[in-house]
Amino acid sequence: MMLRTCRALCSQAGPPSGDWQPLRFDGGAFHLKGTRELTRALLVLRLCAWPPLVTHGLALQAWSQRLLGSRFSGALLRASIYGQFVAGETPEEVRGCVQQLGTVSLRPLLAVPIEEEPDSAVKTGEAWYEGNLSAMLRCVDLSRSLLGTSGPTGNVLMQLKVTALTSTRLCKELTSCIQRPGASPELSPERLAEAMDSGRGLQVSCLSTEQNQHLQASLSRLQRVVQHARARHVRLLVDAEYTSLNPALSLLVAALALRWNSFREGGPWVWNTYQAYLKDTHERLRRDAEAAHRAGLAFGVKLVRGAYLDKEREVAQLHGTNDPTQPDYEATNQSYRRCLELMLTQVSQHGPGCHLMVASHNEESVHQATRRMWELGIPLDGPVCFGQLLGMCDHVSLALGQAGYAVYKSIPYGSLEEVIPYLIRRAQENRSVLRGARREWELLSQELRRRLLGQGLGAPR
Question: Which residues cross the membrane (predicted)?
Answer without folding.
Answer: none
